[in-house]
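Q: Predict the bound structure with tetrahydrodeoxyuridine.
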Amino acid sequence: MTDTQTRALIAQAAAVRLNAFAPYSKFKVGAAVIGASGKVHTGCNVESASFGLTCCAERVAVFKAVSEGETAITAVAVVTDMSPPASPCGACRQVLYEFGKDAVLLRANLTGEVLESRVGDMLPDGFDGKAVVEAQKR
Ligand code: THU
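A: Predicted complex:
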């Protein structure tokens, strides 16, 4: 990714973060993913009064992307107002992994701090669909 692409993806995640519906936690998160098509899909966290139904920004972004026809992601930016920038939760790591083990993961905040890694780095030896497909053959 070029610096320009990195900055643009983080800017989109920061912009959608403003739409976060987080009246309970007040913890606003924005995410932006690049799909295999090259298109960017964004998401924010959406909380429920029944707390367990809350959906994180990363999963909203991935599910929006998949619902638009993407089958994989090549990059994801996650923006919070935290220093150091916050990490995706375990559930989001799993979903990101299934759609983009090698995707660039950018964790950023509002003051310009950026941590760059790969999705797979955050979920070593992760669970993917291969085992499930194998089991169907039995
Ligand atoms: N949250 C995210 O959106 N992404 C994460 O990876 C961690 C947590 C949201 C869920 C909830 O709305 C709030 O942050 C506090 O957990």
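A: Residues 3-17 form the longest helix (15 residues).
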